[in-house]
Structure formats: structure tokens, C-alpha cells
């Protein structure tokens, strides 16, 4: 195939675009969807890991913020955005 052919360049650009989609865009969309599902599943009483590495228990929630209680002395309560939650552990029944 001649590399100066327009068909070659169209196929080449399409191949690069497909590789970009499957290696970058698609995994990002899946990760974003997973994070949104995680944030929809949080409830009061769940133990969470924050993006800063702290473990705490959710004691109150609104649409986009949560109040997390850290430590065992029950005096450290910090409001934070739900987006700062990276892991959720449900309490055992």
C-alpha cells in the first residue's frame, strides 16, 4: 500500500483514534461510573475511607456533603464532600 494514499492516512487516523478510545477514554468512563455508584450507595453508619487516607463513620448526609466522625472519642466530626470518599465498608448486620 502506498503511504501517500489518502485511504492509508484515513485508516491510520481511524486506527489511532480507536486505540485512544480503548486505552484512555473508555477506562476513564468506567472508573467514573464506578465512583458514582459507590457514592450513591453510601448511607449513615457506613465506614468510609477518604481521599486523604482517613477512616471514619458517616453520621449525617445531605445531597453532596457528609459529616464523618473520626476516631474513637466521638469528638472529631468533619463535614466533607461526598466526592472525597474513595471506599465504603457497610456495617455488618
Folded structure, characterized:
It holds the Pfam family YajC. The chain crosses the membrane at residues 6-25. Its main location: membrane. It comes from Clostridium porci. One of its GO terms (cellular component) is plasma membrane. There is one protein chain. The protein is an alpha+beta fold and 93 residues long. The chain has two domains: 1-41; 43-93, SH3 type barrels (Roll), CATH 2.30.30. It is built from one helix and five strands; from the N terminus they run αβββββ. It has one helix at 6-41, and strands at 47-50, 55-61, 65-70, 76-81, 85-89. A five-stranded antiparallel sheet has the order 4-3-2-1-5. The longest helix has 36 residues, at 6-41.
Task: Map the helices and strands.
Elements: H1 6-41, E1 47-50, E2 55-61, E3 65-70, E4 76-81, E5 85-89
Antiparallel strand pairs: 1-2, 1-5, 2-3, 3-4
Keywords: Cell membrane, Membrane, Protein transport, Translocation, Transmembrane, Transmembrane helix, Transport
Membrane topology: Single-pass membrane protein
Family: Belongs to the YajC family.
Amino acid at each position: 500500500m502506498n503511504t501517500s494514499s489518502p485511504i492509508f492516512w484515513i485508516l491510520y487516523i481511524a486506527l489511532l483514534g480507536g486505540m485512544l478510545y480503548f486505552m484512555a477514554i473508555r477506562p476513564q468512563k468506567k472508573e467514573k461510573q464506578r465512583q458514582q455508584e459507590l457514592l450513591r450507595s453510601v448511607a449513615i453508619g457506613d465506614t468510609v475511607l477518604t481521599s486523604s487516607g482517613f477512616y471514619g463513620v458517616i453520621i449525617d448526609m445531605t445531597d453532596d456533603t457528609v459529616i464523618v466522625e473520626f476516631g474513637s472519642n466521638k469528638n472529631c466530626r468533619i463535614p466533607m464532600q461526598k466526592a472525597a470518599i474513595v471506599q465504603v465498608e457497610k456495617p455488618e448486620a
